[in-house]
Structure formats: C-alpha cells, structure tokens
Amino acid sequence: MNCRALVIGAGISGMQAALDIADSGYEVILVEKQPSIGGHMAQLSETFPTLDCSQCILTPRTVEVGQHPNIRLLTLSEVVAVEGEVGHFRVRILRHPRYVIEEKCTACDDCAKVCPVVVPNEFDRGLAARRAIYIPHPQAVPAVYTLDPDACLGLFPLACGKCAEACEAGAIDYDMGPEVVEVEVGAVVVATGYELYQDEAVMAYAYMDHPDVMDGLEFERLLSASGPTGGKIVRPSDRTVPKEVVFIQCVGSRNPEHGVPYCSKICCMYTAKHAILYKHHVPDGQVYVFYIDIRAGGKGYEEFVTRAMEEDHTVYIRGRVSKVFSHDGKIMVWGVDTLTGSKVEIAADMVVMASAIIPSEGSRHVAEMLGISVDEFGFYTASDEEMTPIESGVPGVFLSGVCLGPQDIPETVAQASGAAAKVLALFEAAKVEVE
Amino acid sequence: MGIPYYPGCTLSTKAKNYDRSGRAVAAALGLELEELPEWQCCGATFPLVLDDSMALIAPTRVLYQAQQAGERVATLCAICFNVLRRSQALLKRDPEMLERINWFTEQEYRGEVHVVHFLEILRDDLGWEALAERVVRPLRPPPAPPMRGGARLPLLEGGDGGGLRVAPYYGCLLLRPYEEIGLDDPEDPVIMHDLVRALGAEPVDFPYNIECCGSYLTVREPQVSEALSKDIVVSARECGAQVIITACPLCQFNLDYPQRETEAGRTGNEIPILYFTQLMAVALGLPEETWGLEDHYVDPRPLFNETMKR
Q: How close are the terminal C-alpha atoms of chain A, in Å?
C-alpha cells in the first residue's frame, strides 16, 4: 500500500479532503486545472443561511492548503492517465505551463501593469477584465501570476516581452513547456465539482442578448465586496442601480424538455440570499422571484426564505417565466402567477437566473480514466446510493461534492471529510498489516 | 403528378390571394398543388374535449378525401393544417376512435395520410438553397419614405444586410402543440426566417412573433383581438420590420384589419401584412396578377413598387 493520496479538484470539497488527510500525517497530491484553488466558493459573496462572507471563511483554508507541508499542490494541472488498483494507482499528471516561475513570483503586479492585452476575467464571469498576465483574484492561492498563452502577444513570435522586462524577480519564462508528473498513490478522492447550464433554456431568457440578464454566479460577483464593482449592484449595460430585479428559479432544471429533469437543490436558498442581499444594498428596490415551489429543506433554511419574503419584502410569484426580451431600456419579463391565474408582465432592470447545476466539463473523462460510473447527466454514481454514498464502484476511489449531484457547502464539506476518513481507514489498515 | 392540396374554405373565399399566390409559387417551383377533386370544411377547430368524436367527423372526412388522392395532403391555411394534423395524430394513436368515426361516416379512412404545410414542402422537398437559386428579384429595401411633417421613420432606412426587413409572424396554430404538430421549435421557430433569407430579404426577430392574435375573438370580442394584434404589429415595427408575413388567413385579417383607414385617419405607421406566398411570388418574378396585393387594408403595393424599381 502506497500511503499517499491523490485528490482531483481543489474546490472546497477537494481542499477539505486534502486537509483532513494531510493533517493525519499522510502525503496528498492535490490537482487543480484552474490557476488557483477554492473553486466556485471563492466566487461567492455570502453563504446561506448565515450570510457569512464566503471569502472570509474560505481564505484560511486556501492558505492552509497552500502552506501545508504534506500537500503538494499542482495547479493548472490535469490527471491524464491512471493505471493500477487500490494501494498502487500509477497516475500521470499534465502540468500546463504557467510561464511564470512560481517560486520566484512575488505577486507585485508589475507585469500586469505593463501588459497591453485586455480580456474578460473568467473569475469574475466576464464582468471585469484582466490582462494576459494576471492573478485571478487578490486572495488567490498560489499567490502567483499566470500568463494566458491564448491572449499573450509575446509568446510566439516575440512581439511584446513587456512583462518580462518589468519583472524584477525574473520570474517570467516564455520558454516554459508542459511537464508530465508521474506519481504512485494508494487512494483517490474525486471532487470535480460543477458548472452552470448554458444551453437553450437560458438563451430563451435573452441571456446572450442582454448584458443585464445574468446567472447566479455572475450576480455573486456583482454582490461581492471584492468583485468587479466593489460590491455595488449596478447594471453591466449602463452602470445604473437596478430598481426592479426579477429572479427566475429553475432555469433549465426541473425541465425534462431541456434535458435537466432534476432539481438543482441549492437555487431556492441562494435566490433567497440574493434577494436579501440585494435589498440590503438597494433598500428602495423591488424584488420579484418566480418559483415553482420552495425547497428549503435544511436547518434554518425555511426560516431564511421566510425572512426574505417577510422582513425584506420581496415578492414571490408562483409560476414560470415564458419570455424575456428587451424593450425601451427595460427587460420585459412575461410570466404567469399560478396562484391567481393571471398573466404577469414586469418591466425589470435586471434579471438573474438560477441556472441548473451540471457536472463540470471533463468530469466524464476523469470517470473514464478511473472507471467510475456516471448517471445519464454525468454525475458520478456511488456503489450504493444509500449505504456507501461516497464510495465509487472502484476500490480506493472515493467521491465528494457536487460531482455526485447538486448540494450545498455544508453537505459538500461533510462528504469531503467522509471521503478523507475512508482514505485514512485504508492507510491505517495497511500500517497495521505492516507492523 | 402534383401534390394533393386541400385549400379549405377561407382560401376559397376571403383569402383567395393566399390561394392564388400559393398555387402560382408552387407551380413555378415544380411543386404543383393539385386541389382535391372533392373536399369539405375541416371543422376549423380541433376539439378540445377528449371524447368529442362529433367534431372529428369533418376532419376525418377531409383526410379520407385526401386518402383517395395520395399519401399526403398539403395545406396553406394554418388553421386547416393544425386541425388536420392533430386529427390525424389522434386517429393514429386511437384506433377505437378511428373505427367509431369510420362506422358513422361509412368511409374507410385508414389513418395514414401525412398532413403537411406548404412551408414544410419548401424546406424539406425543395430546400432553401434551391429556392434561393430561383429568386429573380431579391427583395431589397426601398429608400425611406418621408413621414408626416417631413420626418423620416428611422425604422425604414436600409437594413444592415441590405434586404427588405420582413418580420415572420408565426402565431399559434402553425407551431403548437409541438407534440402533434412538430413543424418547428415552438418557442424559437426559424422556418419563415429561413424562407425570408432565401428570398434575399432580412428576417426581423420580434418578441411577439409567437403570441396569439386573438383568433376567433375577432368575431365575438373584437376589442380583445384588436388589443392583442396591436401589440404584435407595434412590436414588429419597433424592431424594424417593413412588412409582416404570416401563414394564417385569420392572423392576416386580425393584424391587417385594425390598421384600416378610420375616421381618425392614418398615422403613417401602418405596416402591410402579407402571406409568405405573396412575398415569394414577388421574389420569384411571377406575373403581378398572382401577387394578390390589392385586397389588403394596408396597401403593400407602394412598398413593392418601390422595391421593384431598384
């Protein structure tokens, strides 16, 4: 038994699993394909139902992961091949070039200041811009800049080179190439997370046509104090404060016609959170929430939604939205109120869609490499949904987080600790045998 | 051998220009529409009560008449199309109902006739590229006409793509219910957009393009249908349309009639409502007598005279 673990994905789930294993004295290799760790939780403004600042409760964990002596963190990296079995998985990891030497970079920002290329910042869901050489956000771990080879002018041919000139630490290396790391591990935790649905159901709500129609994660960035507007809620189109905001729940989800019949589970809660936070930012604003029914199962959850409705005076309309289109500077929202049986037309300033949660891109490929079974939507399936909910059918491979299905942060963290415990049990059993 | 064709009552009376232009266009494209030797009214509404076999008698008779002529029957009227296609779907999945109606009509309808709309024939039999090759007068926009008081309606200035800006209005019956009709995406249809492009014109998207025009309410509660149709027309115009096309004689009437010349006079904001076949007849260079542009409340002729001069 090789008592070293591989964790795939460094969102809150993978981070928690890695920390639990590493704190028990075992070595962990944590692989993340993005340039920094923290996953979607790093993008959130506040968490429900406590309204804690997401960055504030996450950052101590990301820093701990970054500094932990037992965790080897490989960002901008992907697992490309896995062979072997429990106790002896031979793993090939592709490290994409960062073009910045991690050990030398001091995150001084001198390079980004001189970079002439401006592209949308993925971390801010396109609501803000970044340079070709950038750090996704100020709290990023590792605190190292990354050069985006698709946007950079200087990589080939040498047309620019401004950032290398500006870098006093000499950290920029245009000749850096991809690197393959081969390691052997005894157990694997898979925590590949999720994305938001971006298909016809959101297009029908004018998502691509109107900048003020956005999904939940974009709205999180608008709300976030460290976001592109510094936490001011303004319309991306004209930077005015939206006074009428429509939230649409179940966009894509619970909709068999669009291939997502399941419930995305967290949207009722985060929409209530959005409504509350919006009202705290814009007290004279009006919120409308279109819902099918409210699913607030969880400790303090029902009370949280009630608070949104009663204390913050939001208007909940039971019914679906048929159409969204722009008209005279407003966003017209057509829907139905099924409690009164009447058609509803709202001239809104902003529309926020609770888009369905879908497995992240590449999660199927990870499943194929490891032999994990997936359901028809691409979520991983446990060997037994009731009794072994975080064990894959493959011995030594454990599952954690939204890659198993939509769920909120506390559940994800609990699963991560569960998966870590399973890994530790394997390692401890092997130790006993040796002794 | 032409395609068996069911004109229906409206196309034989109020909407002769739809029938005339449709047949002319079909003939010019080698898709001759051959009227069924004998036919009757389709019933004009699909029964919404599950056990209403009486209302299925008329459409089943039509389907039987079509069966005598061939395997499929083409329609132009969106209402006839909807009634016949849905009746056919119902009879196919409910053999008991088929048997009961056959027993009553004393005709042996076998339940196999394909009801198709002429738009489908254009798309599936001919194809948009082949249609585009037959266009002799691509529809280009006229110069912006002066408005009252010397102002120019900015919407009528040349479009980005240079084509006449045509708003396809789909309405309800051509698209819904999708499970039984299945002609195009019921929420985001493209078939008439594609047609407009093939004719060298520019399709105009507008948010009301699948909203109801009020349909038969125009008889009993005209104020309701006029309110609905006004929203449709205004929306199309605001989105830059110079003309609206439809595949339904009732939609055509409901959008056109409220724009008629009244005591208050015209505002200068009227917009012609055409059948798609009329637009095709113009673009395909067919003789003017096939266009049928004279029977409209909003006269489309000035628009096309200008168009053709260029």
A: 13
Looking at residue B158, its pLDDT comes to 42
Among A405, A390, A323, A325, smallest CA distance to A359 is for A405
Q: Which CATH superfamily is domain A4-96+178-193+360-434 in?
A: FAD/NAD(P)-binding domain (3.50.50.60)
Inter-chain CB proximity A323 and B188 less than 8 Å: no
Low-confidence ranges of chain B (pLDDT < 50): 145-160, 310
Query: Minimal Cα–Cα distance from A172 to chain B, Å?
Result: 46
Q: Which residue of A has its CA nearest to B205?
A: A325
pTM of the model: 0.86
| Cβ contacts from A onto B, under 8 A | 8
CB contact at 8 A, A287 and A245: yes
Q: CB of A81 within 8 A of CB of A369?
A: yes
Q: A196-255: per-residue pLDDT in tens?
A: 999 888 888 989 889 999 999 999 999 999 999 999 999 999 999 999 999 999 999 999
- CB < 8 Å to A332, chain B: 207
**Rounded Cα gap, residues B107 and B90, in angstroms:** 17
CATH class of the domain at A197-357: alpha beta
* A200 neighbourhood in chain B, CB within 8 Å: 188
User: What is the Cα–Cα distance from A148 to A115, expressed in whole angstroms?
Assistant: 11
**CA-based nearest distance B212→chain A, Å:** 14
Give chain A positions within 8 Å (CB) of B188. 200, 204
What percent of chain B is modeled with pLDDT above 90? 81
Q: What is the DSSP string of A322-379?
A: EEEEEETTEEEEEEEETTTTEEEEEEESEEEEEEPEEEPTTHHHHHHHHT--B-TTS-
- Name all domains of chain B by residue range, CATH numbers in brackets: 3-119 (1.20.1050.140), 129-309 (3.40.50.11810)
Return the pLDDT at B303: 83
* Distance between CA atoms of residues A352 and A246, nearest Å: 6
pLDDT of residue B146: 46
Interface of B with A (CB under 8 A): 187-188, 207, 238
- The closest alpha carbon to A395, from A119, A17, A6, A85, belongs to A85
Q: Do domains A4-96+178-193+360-434 and A197-357 have the same CATH topology?
A: yes
- Distance between CA atoms of B268 and B289, rounded to whole angstroms? 27
Question: Is A336 in CB contact (< 8 Å) with chain B?
Answer: no
- For chain A, domain boundaries: 4-96+178-193+360-434, 110-166, 197-357
Report the distance separating Cα B192 and Cα B128, nearest Å: 10
CB A402 within 8 A of CB A377: no
Q: Where are the alpha helices (DSSP H) in A133-258?
A: 162-166, 200-203, 216-223
Q: How close does chain A come to B207, measured CA to CA in Å?
A: 7
Residue of chain B with shortest Cα separation from A328:
B238
Q: Which H or E element spans position B119?
A: helix B118-120
Q: B187–A204: do the CB atoms touch at under 8 Å?
A: yes
| Among A336, A420, A308, A335, CA closest to A16 | A420
Contact (CB<8Å) A327/B187: no
Residue type, B194: D
